[in-house]
From TrEMBL:
Protein name as catalogued: Zn-dependent protease with MMP-like domain
Domain of life: Bacteria
């Protein structure tokens, strides 16, 4: 059984802190979900860029906690030319804002966003992701 590391924060974590937390969170995600994941990179940025804001039709850059960028497994073909690895972007400031507003555990929030975005990689529904998230 994977155990969640204890995280107690009194000040907002820096970008490198959040990157380390995301790596720790990956270690707690069920191996069945991660086994088929190949070239998937995690990038932490403060906010989505302006192009992403327009594409996602965000009212505010705080509206997006994470984003999967790439071709999900349900739409990939062996004939596809890959321009690089698929990526999960974690947006630090919106995550921290959500953390402050809800009082939820920051590690749990980061893990939830990762599972949600990895789920998009496989074309899973929100219900599928909720079931995966409940596995330990």
């Amino acid at each position: 059984m994977n155990r969640k590391p204890a995280h107690t924060h009194t000040v907002p974590p820096s970008t490198p802190d959040l990157e380390r937390m995301a790596e720790e969170a990956l270690d707690t995600i069920p191996k069945a979900l991660l086994a088929p994941v190949g070239n998937l990179l995690i990038q932490v940025e403060d906010f989505p860029d302006e192009e992403t804001e327009r594409e996602m039709e965000l009212e505010s850059p705080f509206d997006l906690l994470g984003l999967y960028r790439g071709v999900d497994m349900t739409r990939q073909s062996v004939a596809d030319l890959r321009s690089g690895p698929d990526m999960i972007f974690l947006y630090r400031r919106p995550i921290l804002d959500y953390w402050c507003e809800t009082g939820e555990d920051l590690f749990a929030i980061v893990r939830h966003v990762l599972i949600h975005e990895i789920g998009h990689h496989f074309g899973f529904s929100d219900d599928d992701m909720e079931r995966i998230e409940s596995l330990e």
